[in-house]
Amino acid sequence: MVAANKEMAVYCFDTLVAYFNGAEAPPPEFEGGRFPLFVTWKKHSNGREPRLRGCIGTLEGRCILTGFKDYSLTSALRDERFPPIQAKELPYLQVTVSLLTDYEVVDHYLDWEVGKHGMILEFIDPHNYRRSATYLPEVAQHEGWTQIEAVESLVRKAGYLGPITDVLKSKFRVTRYQSSLYTLTYAGYVDYIKRTRSVASVSTSRSSARVAARRFA
Fold it and tell me: Which residues cross the membrane (predicted)?
């Protein structure tokens, strides 16, 4: 079993920093494998709880070496819910890497646990449109939702705005899953490379945000 770890989160920061500096990221420091995965970026601001800046991934198994590289940039720059992350935001970011495991199709749409399971909701709406959406395991607990509230939010996330009737609920297909995740702040990233890489690498990483900010200003 491969677990999400610090090296994966470091690689996501390496990838984003390298993008802003027009450089190649250092090679990953973890082994490969195939997993569904997500990359989530949040931003710290004025001591408040970090706010979401991008979250994109795949529910299908993918090589994690290329997956984290691709989704680091996709979630940071191309999540349509948010403006692209800018280089000047780097010092305020944290990244969470998630590997999804233990997929199970359940018999009832409430057969999952808040804080333990993520869920994929699929259904066909009254207009015969096929819809689907997912929340990672940590979302419902973070939002303080009950199971019903999480399911109703997923229905809306899937794009259906009509009434959520018992007939509609009878068409729900839910797949629950679990995840292994690791969260790293930019400060933790800088500390990691300070302890594990050469002096030149540390100097480059510390100045990356300033260099990139000037380049993209």
Answer: none
DSSP 3-state of 22 = coil
d(CA 212, CA 194): 20
| Degrees, nearest 5: CA angle 95-101-107 | 125
Count, residues in the chain: 217
Per-residue pLDDT band at 94 (split at 50, 70, 90): very high
Domain 6-101+180-216 belongs to what topology?
Answer: Glycoprotein, Type 4 Pilin (3.30.700)
pTM score, whole prediction: 0.83
pLDDT in tens, 159-185: 999 999 999 999 999 999 999 999 999
Greater pLDDT, 151 or 209: 151
4 burial (CB, 10 Å; 0-12 / 13-18 / 19+) is buried
Among 95, 81, 1, 98, residue whose Cα is nearest residue 41: 95
**How far is residue 109's CA from residue 92's CA, in Å, rounded to a whole number?**
38
Instruction: Show the tokens assigned to 144.
Output: 């303080």
Predicted confidence at residue 201, as pLDDT, reads 53
User: What is the rounded distance in angstroms from the CA atom of residue 131 to the CA atom of residue 136?
Assistant: 17
| 157 vs 149: CA distance, rounded Å | 12
